[in-house]
Amino acid sequence: MKMPLGEEKNGACDRSIYVNNPHLDSMTDDFLYHFNLGTSTHDLPAMFGDVKFVCVGGSPWRMKSFIEYIAKELGLSEPNADYPNICAGTDRYAMYKVGPVLSVSHGMGIPSISIMLHELIKLLYHARCTDVTVVRIGTSGGIGLKPGTVVVTKQSVDSVFQPCLEQIILGKPVVRSTELDGELAEELLQCSKDLAEFETVIGNTMCTLDFYEGQARLDGAFCSYSKEDKQSYLAEAYAAGVRNIEMESSVFAAMCKLSNLRAAVVCVALLDRLKGDQLTSSHDVLNNYQQRPQVLVGHYIKKKLNVGKNIVKF
Amino acid sequence: MKMPLGEEKNGACDRSIYVNNPHLDSMTDDFLYHFNLGTSTHDLPAMFGDVKFVCVGGSPWRMKSFIEYIAKELGLSEPNADYPNICAGTDRYAMYKVGPVLSVSHGMGIPSISIMLHELIKLLYHARCTDVTVVRIGTSGGIGLKPGTVVVTKQSVDSVFQPCLEQIILGKPVVRSTELDGELAEELLQCSKDLAEFETVIGNTMCTLDFYEGQARLDGAFCSYSKEDKQSYLAEAYAAGVRNIEMESSVFAAMCKLSNLRAAVVCVALLDRLKGDQLTSSHDVLNNYQQRPQVLVGHYIKKKLNVGKNIVKF
């Protein structure tokens, strides 16, 4: 393992970013292709050295809206301020920053977020960031939950409800743990209680490689199982503690754990999959639901930075 | 299997789009969520009924640029014409259309393209399209090829070089064939010979779930293998007929085959992975490479539609 480069803090290196790659030392330049940023073309420590919170989500629009929201919440917004996309020159991902908060889109699915995380981890490492918390804010299908409920992930589990991720390296399977930070999850739950604006639960999140057949939907282009098969699979998931289903949490948890990043997954459930597969709520209602993870995480960041009147110390 | 709805042509239904889902019959409305299009909100046969060619690619920008290019090539462009994104109201995918050609972005990775294809196949089905050809145009890493070489995929293979895709349905593995249309691949190779602008080969394409460790790169945030391990894995791939590596072809091939869509994968190799992992070519050179698949497919569509002076009948 490569030693972390971050400064020592409280006598320990334990909040530095790890990269586990001895080959990086011998590279004179590292170009983060999908961000269109590089160590020889950009001063990464100057651009990103102060980052303490990274929020990631699928949609570029939502991540731009998050940075506008958090700027306002932290009192860092200026009249008519625009937040330029830092990844200009590519449309693979979008990235925005205000103060200590970075907001990055990751597209849909494990491979898409995994490319982004490889480059994000190297970016934070090259920028010599320390003590970074990363939160995925997203949408999901709930199981046995009222639509609009926010789920903070306890464990990200696979399609047979195990907290692990199998990745293929040089043609061979490697199994990685998808453990998340339990303390951070509890802190986020407490934030929801502070806010008292919507319901939040802690539960397991199933992460799948497919939105239709992989999540037992009946409305894809293909479906070879019955409604009863679907209901019975979702009931099994519920019994295993699964409260929502999405498509990125497992590799997010595994990669953050390997890099020493404190990580959480906060997704709103847009519907109850036990009752249907398609979204029937209005555009406005769905829009309100989608803002809940960002409101929750915004409150958490404010608390951590002691911003606002009601200062709560951790 | 649900019977195809398409009109009979030459006494057979064999160019219609299949959906293999008996549940679709009982749905009064089908909302294609990630396209923001639905059967009760849009007249899909009127909007898409004439589609004969669908080109898909990762980047929304590239798919917009493709529709502008093909409009000009087919003589369908008008002065100052703008091509609005048909998927307005969502930033998950972008979709453009001119005449019989549809251009759709799919993001990066198997899960992302799989969501798009479920909804594209249902869209073509609801629109009662027939005789549709789908081509993925993309970028890839080459193996033993000069950068800029275009690869038309013979077989899409997995990380142990087998032409199949394992998908998880209700927690159980289902293996699907990733066979592509051999005749279409040969026709595309012939188009490259007609053009004589760049080199094109037919070869196997390895499809992975990860860009860094999954493709034996040495420059990710994590790497647990040596340069020798990498070289030996890529050499094995070459020996198995693999000429390039990308991240979408397997599920693209499998889903098109299940839907009776004539399908091809045409990707340019941006670098030779036997010689490195990072891109060192200039922006202009890479930009030129990225246009090659669209030039090749543009020529193919023109030939099929008998557009231009040098009419070639198939």
Lay out the secondary structure:
The structure is a homodimer of 314-residue chains.
Chain A: E1 31-32, E2 37-38, H1 44-48, E3 53-57, H2 60-73, E4 95-98, E5 101-105, H3 110-126, E6 133-142, E7 150-157, E8 164-169, E9 172-177, H4 182-195, E10 200-207, H5 227-239, E11 242-246, H6 249-258, E12 262-272, H7 283-304
Parallel strand pairs in A: 3-5, 3-6, 6-12, 7-10, 10-11
Antiparallel strand pairs in A: 1-2, 4-5, 6-11, 7-12, 8-9
GO cellular component, one term (chains A, B): cytosol
Organism (chains A, B): Sinocyclocheilus grahami
Family (chains A, B): Belongs to the PNP/UDP phosphorylase family.
Q: Which two protein chains have the largest interface (Cβ within 8 Å of the partner's Cβ), and how many residues from each?
A: A-B, 65 and 65 residues
CATH architecture descriptor of chain A: 3-Layer(aba) Sandwich
Helix-and-strand structural type of chain A: alpha/beta
State the shape of chain A: globular
Number of DSSP strands of chain A?
12
Helix content of chain A: 25-40%
The top level CATH class name of chain A: Alpha Beta
The largest sheet of chain A has its strands arranged as 6-11-10-7-12
Q: Count of helical segments of chain A?
A: 7
The H-level CATH homologous superfamily of chain A, spelled out, is Nucleoside phosphorylase domain
Which residues of chain A sit in consecutive blocks of at least 5 with pLDDT less than 50? 1-13, 310-314
